[in-house]
Write a structure and sequence with these properties.
This protein is mainly beta. It is built from 1 helix and 54 strands. A hairpin with a 4-residue loop joins β27 and β28 (334-344).
């Protein structure tokens, strides 16, 4: 039926905020280049004009369409330009919407426009209409007829003119272009800044960042819009606005809103559009506001290392760089690791998501990965970063040419949501090498430390030797802190791997203080340890809170040559963190008791700024006289031993070794010289000679 410009409207009221309406979509400009289209603003353009009289006219603009399961809803704006000297009575006019095939559709005014009855002389007034149209119709199928009551005609209607929607008209904002909208009379520039697509086993999870900029002169409050994804085959899925919906944007201020949703994974994501609609109060009508083509989601190709990507969740935006992908040897398998840096570029602290991951090898083999947060933090401060490692174990015999690293978030229902995917089909990362005398910084928040090789030592045994590498770890934190848990392995020149044990004090280290970290391994005597390199990584902590034998962030240390020269003066002998000097060494024989006594003075010092685990370290004194096939040995504890007779305490003290002399009494006339050997003994009896002095029997040294 015919409809006056103000009659037949649904009797409802609209919220105080006026509809966020599109500022007139443009016709397609076929001459525009792609470069010009980038972030170009869709400018005002009308669909046509119909004269009221010689000076006044109707102007049609902003025709939008919203699709849902029940059909299509269109909205459009009619501006009445009264350039005459008298008022225009809107009761004398109405508009009709019909299809080119002749179907007519009921037209309604939005509630706040239904009370408008006159347009004063020399003014203009814009009215917003909506109508439900057939599901199969497009905008180009529609015609808009403007009618005036005329009682001199048989049907009392006089057609003033009809406007058809041209084929070149585009109500949809092209991807990567801006559109200006009106919010409560304020002009707002809108632009889809980015689209991030994550995925679960069942759903696509788009996150759309819509940028809003108030280019008007007054503040506005974001109305309670509904947001939808419209697929290429006409399916519609709701989106949720993250955070508060009561956004107030002041003049010349720019801000973002984020929209998220869940769309079945079997729905093709190409050709999706974002639709914005405003529900009219007390009705089921949703007024079309604007439609945008989503920009293409870039597919990453080639190596992924060093490339920055971003993801969003309910907390905010996160920026991620993949630093390295390593394949690391372990005893029975290989460890596949990815080192990620997650940055907060915003102005507020972000909560750390519960992260997980997955490696996909050659697009076919999925390997579940665990996420490790090496930094001791609970959030990411503005302009700050944290390190995250993903790791998984794979058979050491398995070869692959491409690895996809997928960062995931574990939601409250324990479902994993894909956040980002890095595709890497180049060589995996090589392990950084630290040269002799170089330092490596363990950049673990709360446990930052500088790691450097102090010494290498070989403790000789009967059938096997222990090879040890001493590190100094300097605490770079501003408070007492433990050194991060570390794992390591030795690698021979021909590629054989030997997992190393680690010895470190459990005590916290003072700021600027140091800890002695000792990596060691027992090797067969035929292994050339002079060509070894040591790979050190940060140990992964298990669910029970204890370190595992897995590790991340590896670095290789070039080891210095071992000092093989043995001091012949027993002064300042190195048993780091201890140092010992011996003097007034003399031997005596007790004929009645049949014993040999070695007595000595000593000065035992310790670097008190170094925390060290010395439980398995002993000092061994050995008296040997090869000419007479004599050997006497005593093992001494360093500090706080169980037996005071065989414990060397800090400071200047005296000590002695008393041994049964056997036949020594009968050889006294031929005794000339003996060697006093000093050993550093470690673990199960292996020892390193750290000093040897030739001394005359029964003489006293200086």
């Amino acid at each position: 039926m015919n409809q006056r410009l103000y009659k037949g409207m649904v009797g409802v009221s609209l919220a105080a905020a006026l509809t966020l309406s599109s500022v007139a979509p443009s016709f397609a400009d076929t001459a525009a280049s792609t470069a010009q289209a980038s972030k170009q603003t869709v400018v005002n353009s009308t669909l046509g004009k119909v004269n009221i009289d010689s000076v006044s006219f109707f102007e049609l603009a902003e025709v939008n369409l919203l699709s849902d399961r029940n059909g299509n809803t269109i909205s459009f704006k009619v501006t009445v330009h009264n350039n005459s000297s008298t008022d225009i009575n809107l009761l004398d006019y109405w508009t009709q919407v019909k299809s080119k095939a002749g179907s007519r559709f009921t037209v309604n005014l939005i509630p706040e426009d239904r009370l408008e009855e006159r347009v004063p002389a020399q003014t203009s007034k814009t009215l917003t209409y909506y109508a439900d149209v057939s599901k199969n119709l497009s905008l180009q199928d529609l015609q808009f007829e403007f009618v005036k009551w005329d009682f001199n005609l048989p049907n009392f209607e006089r057609s003033l003119g009809t406007i058809s929607v041209p084929t070149t008209y585009k109500a949809v904002t092209p991807a990567n272009q801006k559109r200006n909208l009106l919010v409560d009379g304020t002009e707002v520039s809108t632009f889809i800044d980015r689209v991030i697509m994550s995925k679960t086993e069942k759903y696509h999870r788009p996150t759309i960042t819509l940028q809003l900029e108030n280019i008007g002169s007054q503040s506005f409050t974001l109305p309670a819009y509904e947001y939808r994804i419209l697929t290429s085959n006409g399916l519609s899925y709701p989106l949720t606005l993250k955070g508060t919906s009561e956004m107030v944007l002041n003049p010349k201020v720019k801000d973002d809103i984020q929209l998220t949703g869940s769309i079945p994974v079997d729905v093709d994501p190409s050709g999706w559009k974002l639709q914005i609609a405003l529900p009219l109060a007390d009705s089921n009508v949703k007024l079309p506001i604007a439609t945008y083509d989503l920009p293409a989601i870039n597919k990453q190709e080639g190596g992924a290392i060093g490339t920055e990507h971003s993801f969003s969740n309910s907390t905010g935006d996160y920026h991620v760089i993949l630093n390295s992908i390593h394949r690391l040897p372990s005893e029975d398998y290989d460890l596949l690791t990815a080192d990620l840096t997650i940055t907060n570029n915003g102005t507020e602290t972000l909560e750390l998501p519960k992260l997980a991951g997955q490696f996909t090898l050659d697009q076919n083999i999925d390997v579940t990965a665990t996420a490790v947060l090496s930094d001791n933090v609970i959030g990411i401060k503005p302009k700050s970063s944290v390190s995250v490692q993903l790791y998984a174990t794979i058979p050491y015999t398995y070869e692959f040419t491409e690895v996809r690293t997928i960062l995931q978030e574990i939601e409250e229902d324990e479902q994993r949501v894909d956040l980002l995917e890095f595709i890497h089909n180049e060589d995996l990362s090589s392990i950084n090498t630290i040269g002799v005398n170089g330092k490596h910084t363990l950049d673990v928040i709360g446990k930052r430390a500088a790691l450097s090789v102090r010494n290498v030592l070989t403790y000789e045994g009967t059938s096997a030797n222990i090879f040890s590498t001493q590190f100094l770890a300097e605490n770079l934190e501003k408070r007492f802190s433990n050194i991060a848990n570390l794992n390591a392995y030795y690698e021979t020149e021909d590629g054989w791997l030997y997992p190393a044990s680690v010895e470190i004090s459990e005590n916290k280290v003072a700021p600027g203080g140091k800890a002695l970290v000792n990596f060691y391994k027992q090797f067969p005597k035929n292994i050339d340890t002079s060509k070894l390199k040591l790979v050190v990584g940060e140990a992964i902590i298990g669910e029970d809170g204890t370190p595992t034998d897995l590790y991340v962030n590896p670095v290789a240390f070039t080891l210095p040559d071992e000092t093989l020269e043995v001091p012949t003066e027993l002064k300042q002998l190195d048993m780091f963190p201890y140092e010992i000097s011996m003097s007034k060494i003399r031997t005596q024989i007790n004929y009645e008791a049949g014993t040999m006594t070695l007595s000595f003075d000593y000065n035992l010092t310790k670097d008190l700024l170094v925390e060290a685990n010395t439980e398995n370290h002993k000092l061994v004194l050995e008296v040997t006289d090869e000419k007479h096939d004599l050997k006497f040995t005593e093992v001494y504890s360093l500090e706080n031993g169980d037996n005071p007779d065989t414990t060397l305490e800090l400071g200047e003290n005296s000590g002695e070794m008393v041994k049964q002399s056997g036949n020594l009494v009968f050889q006294i006339r031929t005794l000339e010289k003996y060697n006093l050997n000093v050993y550093h003994q470690f673990t199960s009896g292996q020892k390193k000679l750290i000093g040897s002095m030739e001394i005359g029997w029964f003489r006293t040294t200086d």
